[in-house]
Every structure is written in structure tokens, then in C-alpha cells.
Amino acid sequence: DTGVSQDPRHKITKRGQNVTFRCDPISEHNRLYWYRQTLGQGPEFLTYFQNEAQLEKSRLLSDRFSAERPKGSFSTLEIQRTEQGDSAMYLCASSGRGSTDTQYFGPGTRLTVL
Amino acid sequence: QKEVEQNSGPLSVPEGAIASLNCTYSDRGSQSFFWYRQYSGKSPELIMFIYSNGDKEDGRFTAQLNKASQYVSLLIRDSQPSDSATYLCAVMTPSGSARQLTFGSGTQLTVLP
User: Which among B32, B43, B92 has the least Cβ separation from residue A91?
Assistant: First the structure.
């Protein structure tokens, strides 16, 4: 049983560039979440998918951010025109069917915007 | 007021002692409560979840929930140096289709050998 995987693990980019991250959830999980974490803070919710439907988006998710889960399996998070304030750890989590909604996190993608 | 509050620490305990980590939350509708452990530079790792008032034990870990006081705690018995990490309290408050967790800022725990 493999856990949540994320790719890349690290990304360094210049301000103004676009970046895309990928998340592969635990195979039997139908719910997928994106969070962002900055140093000294807990993760902050960005968006949530149930199967392929994006059901919730945070106010933190500006129009430069877009997320997809086209076939209800893996998900991508794209940030357009990156800014230095986007530098953070981007975490993906998944949870299975049922009411517990226990979320398991992937290793994260650390983004540095120069 | 933050929705989930934790003492940032750092909290230091000697090896073998009991570490007590506390968390309060503001939304009385919250139903599910989670503790995650996060080592420096790593992602959060689930330790325990609790839904009902009272205590829930799993090995050296005990989660305690008091919904009337809006208070969750995590006790770590026989603390080990490997327990040194940041402990994150997370709360899920159902709202429509929403399933997101709201996290506290974490408590940094150091277990001294």
C-alpha cells in the first residue's frame, strides 16, 4: 500500500514563472485536498476534490492558482505568475470513503520563488 | 481570534516524562479532532483522531476531548527523544460539502535525553 506521493519534492523558480505540482493520492481514496504551509504555521486549506469535482476553494486561492483532478485520480495544482509570497510547502492529502475523513499527507512540494 | 489555538512552545520534557500538549478551538460545531506530528522539513504524520468526549488511548499516546470546554489535549507517556517534533492540532467543522481541516500553529516539543 503506497501513501500519497507528490512531485516534484522541490521547485525553485523565478518570479513571474508558472509552476505545476502533481499529487497522487492513496489509490482507494476518493477525496483529495491541497494545503499550503509557511514556516512556523500550520497548514492552510486551499482546495478540496471529491472524485473529479472541486467542491471547495479557500479565499486564499487567488485567480493565479488553479487545481484539477481530471479523472478523479491524480491532481495538479498550478500557480501562474509566481510571486515571492508564494514560497511555501504545498501539501496534498487524501482521505477515503466514509465519514471519518482522516486525511493522510504526502511529502509535500517545497516551492522557492526567487 | 484564531480558530484553533495551541501554545507554540517550545515545550521541553526529560526523557521518560509525560508530555502534555493542549489545543482549544472556537467553533462549537466542530466534530472531528486530529493530532499530527511534524518533524522539521517533513510533512504532517497522523498520530490520532478523536470524535467523542473523553479519552482515547493508542500506545503511549492519549487524546482527550472536552467539547463543553472546546478543548483537546494529547498526552505522550514515556517520552522519547524521537518524539521531539512539532505537534499540530487540527479540527474539522462540517459546513456543506466542506471537509477541510483547520490547523493550529503547532507546539514544538523537545525531549531531552
Answer: B43
Residues of chain B with pLDDT under 50: none
Q: What is the pLDDT of residue A71?
A: 87
> Tell me: the pLDDT tens digits for A24-37?
999 889 999 999 99
Interacting residues of A62 by C-beta distance below 8 A, sequence separation 6+? none
Q: List the strands of the sheet with B61-66, edge to edge.
A: B4-6, B19-25, B71-76, B61-66, B54-58
Residues of B with CB under 8 A from a CB of A: 4, 8, 32, 34, 36, 42-46, 49, 88, 90, 92, 97-106
What is d(CA A45, CA A32) in angstroms, rounded to the nearest whole number?
11
Predicted local distance difference test score (pLDDT) of residue A1 = 54
Q: Which of B8, B32, B97 sits opposite A56 (nearest CB)?
A: B97
